[in-house]
Amino acid sequence: MKQLLKTKGRDWLLVVLTVLLLHYLALALHIVITSGSFSFEKLGDLIEGRLMEPGDATRYIDIARHGYVTTGENAINLVFYPLYPLLMRWLGWLTFSLPLAGVIISHVGYCAASILLYELMLLDGDRRNAWDAVLLLSLYPFSLFALGVFTEGLFLALSIGCLYALRKRNFLAAGVVGFFAALTRTQGMLLFFPAVYEWVTLRFGPKKEKLRWQDAFLLLIPAGFGVYLGINAALWGNCFQFLKFEAGEPWYQSTQWIGENISLQYRLARDYPGLAWFIYYLQIALYFAALAVLGYGVYKKERMMYLLYGGVYLGFTYLSGWMISGGRYMLCCVPLFIILGKLKDGLARRFLLLATGLLFFLYSELFLRGYAIM
User: Whole domain around residue 80: which residue ranges?
Assistant: First the structure.
């Protein structure tokens, strides 16, 4: 047992160091390219300017500081789920800086997610599979968002933790972790699909194991979404007030069929050529690439739990009408990295890691330069 713990601790440390090294290398390269020399002062300024301020980061900071409000221009912040800004508020009492608290939570979450993914892969594969999955997650072109004031780092940790608990058939832990995932992002409630599948397979499959009281904890996953709806109702008298805000400025979000959404992405790419390769063409390519990976997973007879979650995650994400952050959203489609991490062909593995690595540094540099990488 002592040797096992020593080995695990070493592996986890290597995973964390690798993940952080890759991302901070991207930050350091940007500093050297743009200013000619590196300094920790410049690194701090870059983190403050690009990981703590852009896009939704300011809205999470506002929620952490003031909570949800029902008047003024920040009333629309209701569309953001409560767990991440709540944790920022609590940690902010120690750091005296809400943006710094957000970055710390994201760093810890992303490192925990990488460790959990590593351990999840070891349940069905070897260390090479585990490392490949971790590297592919780290080198995903939009993975830098997981370290900033965004929910990606936290949500990855919670969603992978839920999948790990389901894989171990620990329904109590899966329900509790899934509850918090559903309080972090809309996609968190989708964890209920693999949870129900695992429960039905275990209790009514060939083995037909007896029902246990812990099974009821799986209901905590949709209950997390229910809590968010309750917040909507308590503040606005309407459980789905957030949908009204999403449909308005500045998001203009609606729900439409995937085919219509893909067609819209193509039209937007033609109408806005300056954004085409950063947003619209990229989102089209990601959809079909993810579909191909899931299809490959079906061919390789991957666990249905992963295929089901990947399928509903992909479908749900691409039901969003005017989507501009598809690349970032798909970072949390964990089954893609699980499937690709099990590639056996050495040439294909090396090519995939090289291609994703190049795209990672390219899109990280573009994001750090202020391009429309969302």
Answer: 11-368
373 is a domain residue: no
In a domain, 6, yes or no: no
Does a structural domain hold residue 200?
A: yes
CA dist., res. 330 & res. 174, Å (int): 22
DSSP string covering 62-119: HHHHH---SSSGGGGGGGS-SHHHHHHHHHHHHHS-HHHHHHHHHHHHHHHHHHHHHH
Q: How far apart are CA 264 and CA 261, in angstroms?
A: 5
- Residue 46 is assigned to a structural domain of this protein: yes
Distance CA 362, CA 53 (A): 21
Kindly report the pTM of this predicted structure: 0.96
Residue 335 to residue 175: CA distance in whole angstroms: 19
Tell me if residue 207 falls in helix, strand or coil: coil
Number of domains the chain contains: 1
Q: Which DSSP string corresponds to 237-251?
A: S-TTHHHHHHHSTTT
Q: What is the pLDDT of residues 289-311, one digit of tens each?
A: 999 999 999 999 999 999 999 99
